[in-house]
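> run fold HTH luxR-type domain-containing protein
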Amino acid sequence: MVLSDPTIRALRFADQVIHEADRADVFTVYDACRAAIGAITVLDDFYVALLREDDRRISYPYLFSNGSYAEAGTMTYGPAGVVAWVVASKRPYRYQDDDGALLNRGVRFGDGEPSADAVMVPMLTEDGVVGVLGALSDTPGTMTDEVVDALTWLAAVVRDRIHAAKPGRGLNLAAVYPELQDTGRAGTLMAVNHAASALTAMAADIQKVAAMDDAEERSAALSSLSRRCFEVQAALMTRLGGHADTDSEPDPRPDPLERLSPHERSVVDVVTGPDGDPGNAAVAETLGIGTATVKTHMASVLAKLGLEHRSELRWLVGRGEGDSAPDPRARGRG
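> ok
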């Protein structure tokens, strides 16, 4: 990874800001990442997402769109969109690889208009993908290789900040710094305490704002309060949204084939069997139906699931653990 001087300066500044931020202040961490990418390319939207693979839950502690912060939230990501692809492939997704086909299957935020360029990079741990950093632009051709490398580096910084302690060192840092324990409990307590203190201070400041007579002073104070609300939101979503209930049983994994008819599911079962896809003729023989019927069912399956090739079915249903997710750059080649 050879980066230009401007990019190195932007990343070093972000790293300095992150290291100087309070341990509980994840908002500053996310904001520094967004500012760094915005310094090296044309950036319209930026987000940080934390996820759990077991039940496809994804939380957005930080959303920034067209110059303002957006409300965070938690949802279930789809089985055939860009997040599922990044989780399965464990590598960055680039809009330029498939002309945004995977990206445009997902939920849009901000102004709701489709982006002209984008990149999403995974936050990787030994357990798999734990989050995603996304950068989107309304200007084509802005997400260069250097931007991808910079965002990948920042994703590692965020990952290490959130999953700070994997106590495998001789010095028991967790004894003195309990926030470094990634069991969830210490971090959750820290986030709750930090949020409680912040909300108490904000309540007092709201009373002060109500007593202000100067319109400009009141506007500036309200703007400051708005940012502090997003800071509290980011801290709580990072801990409670991405790591809540770590000791409880996860919700059942959604069935990616729930929209299919029984006949269509039968075709998928044969195509994704342990011996691989046997082809239309063999599927027809196995199920006792015509080859044309197999083709009809398969076309319906791909349309319902938003897929472009039947080879994608294997990783979608979780039977291709040893295989890589299909590369979007290979789409349209047969």
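The mean pLDDT is 78.
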